[in-house]
Write a structure and sequence with these properties.
Elements lengths: L1 H26 L6 H8 L3 H7 L4 H17 L9 H17 L2 H10 L4 H27 L9 H21 L6 H19 L3
Length: 199
């Protein structure tokens, strides 16, 4: 019995989630009400709050799924230089988010006031940081960086460049500049790290 209840709960969750995304994409996040989402999903309005504390929590779920897809995508080439390998995660993120620019914009704007988005961002930041640390360790092991390079600090710097550049470009409406800006900044950091090791 519990299995059927859980399955029904998942089905309602997915119906609300998918209905909300369709509405957000067609009308824009701000223009969509919870009543419209529940009507499109075919459930009572109160049911929404059994699954999502607020409308913005749908954005948190969207962002969690998007970044899970990014992190589950295997690296294309193990021999890429550090800056290019670091840029892969950014490229995959931008490519996936480009399919839903309104959701990306709303998530970025609501992040400072939405705890669930902040939680997902923190989880994603840890995953991306760990990825950059692995890339730094690989570059050290291949002799591309000095042996005394601190991979944790380098991972922190790459994460900061990644998140800061994305936020800067999205908030200022310069989405098309994200990848060129990241490429330039990632290459500069790789060059500095190769010379100094950033201990």
């Amino acid at each position: 019995m519990a299995g059927k209840r859980d399955q029904k709960k998942r089905e309602v969750f997915d119906a609300l989630y998918q209905s909300a995304l369709r509405l957000f994409d067609s009308k824009g996040y701000d223009a969509v009400t919870v009543s419209e989402i529940t009507r499109a999903a075919g459930v009572a309005k109160g049911t929404f709050f059994n699954h999502f504390p607020a409308k913005a929590d749908i954005l948190a779920e969207w962002y969690r799924r998007l970044m899970a897809d990014v992190m589950d995508t295997p690296a294309t080439d193990d021999s890429l230089p550090l800056a290019e390998a670091a840029l892969e995660v950014a490229h995959q993120t931008i490519s996936l988010s480009a399919a839903s620019p309104q959701l990306w914009q709303a998530t970025t704007q609501l992040s400072p006031v939405t705890p669930s988005i902040q939680t997902v961002e923190a989880e994603n930041d840890r995953a991306v940081r760990n990825h950059y640390i692995r890339l730094a360790r690989r570059a050290i092991s291949k002799g591309h960086l000095p042996s005394d390079t601190d991979p944790d600090k380098l991972g922190d710097l790459y994460l900061t460049l990644f998140t800061g550049t994305v936020r800067q470009c999205v908030v200022t409406g310069r989405r098309e500049e994200i990848l060129p800006d990241l490429k330039r900044r990632f290459e500069a950091l790789a060059s500095i790290a190769a010379r100094t090791g950033l201990p």
